Amino acid sequence: MRILIAVLIAAAAGLGALGWYFKSEAARGAGESAALRSDLEGERQARRGLEEKLENILAEQNQEIHRLTRKALELEELQLDAKALREDLAAKTELAKNAQEKAEQAAAAAQAAAQEREKTLQDLAQLRTDQDELAAKFAAAKTAGERAAADLEKALEEKTALAQKAALAETECDNLKRALEKQQGVARSAAGREIEGVVEQDAGDGKVILSKLSEKPEVDLEFSVFRDGEFIGRVKISKAFENYASARVTYLPPGKEVMAGDIVTTSFPEKR
Length: 272
Known about the structure:
A hairpin with a 3-residue loop joins strand 4 and strand 5. A six-stranded antiparallel beta barrel has the order 1-2-5-4-3-6. The radius of gyration is 76 Å and the shape is rod-shaped. The chain is an alpha+beta fold and about 270 residues long. About 10% of the residues are buried. The protein is about 70% helix and about 15% strand. It is built from one helix and six strands. It has one helix at about 1-190, and strands spanning about 195-205, 205-210, 220-225, 230-240, 245-250, 265.
């Protein structure tokens, strides 16, 4: 019992001490809580200050961003303007280059034209010289032409005279041939070998067909052709049959031609 009482007393004393401890701890905790609340309020004020500073900084940053954005837009516009200026400069440079090339070409063309003009003047001078020479040659040629015309006229006169002499000689020759053929015909008649016939048709290319022959002629035998007693020409047998033959014309005087119906004979018939 005494022990229990002692324990209770000890417990009461302990509880008293514990109560004092808790009170002291509560007081200390209240102090710490007040300090914490003060610190928290300070931190809140500091935080509000920081937030205000942050808001100010953000506002300044936003303004700076807006300013930089405007600057970026202005810079982009400047870049576009610079690009346009570069393109314009490149185009103008190209135009200037083309203009320079055209100027150089024009200068070269002008120089070539000047050289061509100089050459043309030289050619013109040479042409005048050649023209003078040609005029002199033409005058000489004209004189020579007049002399040649006189010589030609004289030659034509001589040719006409020679043609007349040739015609006379041909007539004499025809007369001699007719006389000779007459003599040959007489000889053949005396020998009994006279052959007569007519021209059946003109076969062209100097060939004729003979028919109604009094006897078969020999190849290469020559016949005289007559029409109404007039000597027309001569033909020579190329192929012979019993009463007809083919022959080729061997002689025709100028203006004569063998026609169907002409008389052919190996003698010289008299006109009837």
